[in-house]
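Two entries, shown back to back:
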Amino acid sequence: MFIVIVVTLALGSARSAKPAAPANASQPPDVGVIQVKGEDVPVYRDYPARTYARDLVEVRGRVDGYIERRTFDIGADVKAGQVLYVLDLRPYQAEVDQAQGALAQAVADLGQANANLVKAKQDVDRLGPLVEAEAAAKQDLDNANAALEAGKAAVESRKATIEADRAALRTAELNLDYATIRAPIGGRIGDSQSQVGALVTKTSADPLTTIVPLDPIWVRFQISEAELRSFDQLDTRSLPIELVLSDGTVLPRKGRIENTLNSVNTKTGTMEVQASFPNPDHSVLPGQFGRVRLRVAERTNTVLVPQKAVQEVQGTQSVLTVSPDSKVQVRSIVTGDRVDQRWIVERGLEPGETVIVEGLQKAKPGSLVTPRPYSAPTASNAVARVER
């Protein structure tokens, strides 16, 4: 009898030693939620873009000569009219001196011709009355008239020579000026293809260097053929646009669309649009990649949800909502443009509904949850844009 009682007590003690069930086993899981509301947001469209220099200029020599000096630093900003290269000036200076001498001689010859003309006219004036009075031979008067006409022709010839010599002097002076090569425009100058001592020829196929204007900086981007009609309806000349560089930097100054090309590219089905942006600090260079952002519309009373709240299965998008009695429900939605880290909901949600953003893996349709307010890690600007 004593042994049986001990065994019974031991079995009862073993049963009572089982671990107790967790007190919170039936507690609904916590989920982070937001209550969606109607918002007013501007709608933007983003297009991949690339900067370029519209008025790139190749610097070339206009006369032949050897480079004696290069006066610029490669990659520096230069002003229009700034001296870049100086060729050997001596041959061209000699041509100027020679032309000046020829012009001076022609002027002297004209003076002599004028003096001869005056003398010839005086002879005619003197012999005329004498011939009428038969005090001089008519042959002398004829000779004087011939000399007068020759004098007039000589004066005109000397005048023509002076004009020719003046033109030759202007050409010589122009060549002398061309021997000092200046920047035709302001901008950033590139590498020098010819160094001091190299021969510059006006027929060379390669330029000495290039200059690209950086203010304004130009941008080209493509719009699809399907967007042409809606794009034409925009007031593009007064439409402010933004340039977002590849590192995410937004150019502080707004640009504007300047023109579009006159045809659609048959290979890509797109049309090129060109825009300009003020760039006084020359911080943007040609050849950089980025995005052009156009504000195209204003949406009012629009419902937005975080991207992480949207689930997509086989092309169907949905979100999990929490009913007033804390039950999870599945809602199919249709999204539109993206607003930074959020989607615009075109259909499927109404302002005031509660959407699960965090803890989706713990929320099952029809189950109970404990909703907690969700706070985004960083605030985002309400800017809707279409990614291209």
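entry 2 starts here
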Amino acid sequence: MSDSKKNTVDRRGFMGGGLRVATSIGLGGLAAVLVAKKGRAGDMVWQIDPYKCVACDQCATHCVLDISAVKCMHNFAMCGYCELCTGYFDPEPNDLNSAAENQLCPTGAIVRKFVEDPYYEYTIEEPLCIGCGKCVKGCSAFGNGSLFMQVNHDLCVNCNECAIAIACPSQAFQRVPAEKPYLLKSIEGNSTE
């Protein structure tokens, strides 16, 4: 093969390789733009207004995920640390102990821990929570409402049209800015972000 043909092949190989590299860089740049766009301040995510939520059980049954992305949260500042917590216990428990037959939560997601007489602390084991809202309904009916539902954005796929939002009878689901994704309950009685 002559030197001129050898150089032509090398130039073609070089140009083809260069084109592949440029395309890869371009696609990588496009991917970076899409990732950056996802986190932009203008993005919106689904969340539950805790003051509109009626704990209807739709969050547990209508989420597109096998286990709902909606979880119970607890505002400890609002909690009374009651011995008879109506978010933890069935309204008429057999006994005030943590036996399964006395608990309101069907999965045992609420943990009761003695603090000092007569106070108990209640925490949520999030992986066990299925988003049924039974604890929220109990806490709101007889307690101070320190338990409430929120979408966990680490789990939520942020569907364009949320199936739970469509099914929500109180229209508590709304779009909120991604940079302030939680609507928390406060002692003052309004949502904080």
